Amino acid sequence: MNRTSTYQPGLAWFAALGSAWVFVLVTLGAFTTTIGAGMAFADWPLSNGSVNPHGWLDDIAMFAEHSHRLSGTTMGLITLVLAVWLHRTEQRAWLRSLGWWALGIVVVQGVLGGTRVLFDAMHVPGFEMSFGQMLRIPHGILAQVFVCLLFAIAAGVSRPWVENRGGTAGPLVRRLGWWCVALLFVQLTIAATMRHNYAGMAIPTFPFSTAEGAVLPGAWDYRVALQFAHRVMAAVLGVALAGYGHVLWREKSLAAPLRATSFLLIGLIAVQITLGAEIIWTARSVVVTTGHVVVGALTLAAVFVVTFFVHRDALEARAAKSA
Question: Among 171, 165, 316, which residue's Cα sits nearest to residue 255?
């Protein structure tokens, strides 16, 4: 096999396509969940026994769910091609491994999505949600891991990475980046749990937790706790990403385009917090709620890929030693 670590334009563009398509999948998944269309079809992998179910273009719930399934299948095919392409042409073992990990996760995601449908009616003693409904939570969390994997691959095969155009980051920038990624994963885990426990409006006022202007909720249950934790983490992330953006911008040893992403990170978290507030103020508008999920995933992807880039030298050095 002719393996190389030189820049491959075709591979780079295809990896970028995969990173873009995943947001089509995320958007359709978020929209399907927001309008409660996850059980528009009670069978899987077919939809009403067909790959082209009758009337799916005319019914919004059927359209949302079937489009989500079709986009997931497309994502699987893109990931398969990407994994094989990396395996056949890429010299770096860590990138080849990421390709196979991405393929494994997209398969698991498909199985989780299908199992969620097939076991929707299976009651679990002591829980309000059925077994199938519970699977929506790991399905949502694993989707974020998959997004990061695709962006790591796209970064690793890009021209700036291969030609080492990003510059060198100091330990503070590298450390803060991973802390922000970790905080975002915690927040998105809380968000997925909250969303699938129907806790998005558990506290119906914002920015305060009661109509009287109290910071803490007047009464507590697990849904209120999830909603409040989500708000607290949003505040923590606002501070953390503002700090990360500031440190990133001041890191003169980094290339100007990489430093300039600091404004993107701060802008994304500002938009995300605004959308979160709008969900409460609009009583969970479908457009706003779907946008909040998508921007959340985009924020994670942006912070992750910037952090991944500032670790480029260390990652490649370790890979060279183990080669």
Answer: 165
